Amino acid sequence: MFGLKKNNNKAKIFAFANQKGGVGKTTTAINLGCAIAGAGEKVLIIDLDPQGNASTGLGINKDDRKFSTYDILTSEQTIIDIKFETLVQNLDIVPSTLDLLGLEAVLAEDNEKSYKLKLAVEELEAQSKNEYDYILIDCPPSLNLLTINALAAADALIVPLQCEFYALEGLGQLLETVEHVRATLNKDLLIHGVLLTMFDERNNLSGQVAKDVRDFLGDKVYKTVIPRNVRVSEAPSYGKPVILYDYKCQGSQAYMNLAAEVLKKDKIALNSNL
Fold this sequence. Notes:
The protein is of the alpha/beta class. It has helices spanning about 25-40, 55, 70-75, 80, 105, 115-130, 145-155, 170-185, 205-215, 230-235, 240-245, 250-270; strands at about 10-15, 45, 85, 90-95, 135-140, 155-160, 190-200, 220-225.
């Protein structure tokens, strides 16, 4: 269930999910996306969180979001028509708005409601001739229709997990949801990895939690750990990934290490599939 094997001509699609809020999903999506783009890969972020933090964190003003992922999921617009370029070369985003809060009611009677994002991404790849190498989907902090759409469309899941006392609480439910999606919507869905976030080396609890998670999940946990870092917290208020805001800070270096780890893992998986 772990490791990604993917046709080299198509984008690798990652969903970032954890129903627990405040674990670093959005921060990871935009900074990993920035780091992968910096490595020369073309990246698209799809913001599926009604709060729109990924959009704000990449400098997309709310007043400029005339269309959003809501319009994609209701089949009113296509991704290629509403995506934005960002300050980061090779990194684009499809923004979100609060309209997403009403999506479940709008799609209640739609037989394809769980596949709306998958269909939109397939249309994008046909229109753009597989322009993107990676598509990253930022999910809301819940296991609702938006997250189900992301998991149905994704090749693999990245799970940010905060280094705190209740780190593993809810992870079992998420993994059960993944198995349900595999059984009913997307049999090829993999778990690419679990990412430890907000690690504080001065706090004994962080070290113990990291050890417990690694003991429980083994090599399913990325080697890279994202530290608790004030520059990472500041960057979104400037509409920038931390790698642009402060390239040399500890948080930036961690996300670049994570990108290297993700790209290496994908290369190994691809070569083993040739």
